[in-house]
Amino acid sequence: xxxxxxxxxxxxxxxxxxxxxxxxxxxxxxxxxxxxxxxxxxxxxxxxxxxxxxxxxxxxxxxxxxxxxxxxxxxxxxxxxxxxxxxxxxxxxxxxxxxxxxxxxxxxxxxxxxxxxxxxxx
Length: 122
Known about the structure:
single chain; 122 residues; alpha+beta; Alpha-Beta Plaits; four-stranded antiparallel beta sheet; 3 helices; rod-shaped
């Protein structure tokens, strides 16, 4: 389960913000860390992140750190599924065992043999 943890952190300069980001990245399970300097917030994204351990590490260095919110990050919806459903309504049914339903089928041309060839190869 991926989660997004927003932490309020009172930092005054870029050096302290970089140190806080370094501490957050070293926590197991963290995928990405972003910093919002205007709001003094640190946004940590990851799977299986222990928020208690993360806060314990941050509070050792920065005394006034607090969790603003913890949200579950849902994976983005796949738009291909919708296109596939729409395509299946308009395209003919594929032969059994064929995976792509949106391939155009063309009739197979059969060669015509003439009994009296007008052309000869010399």
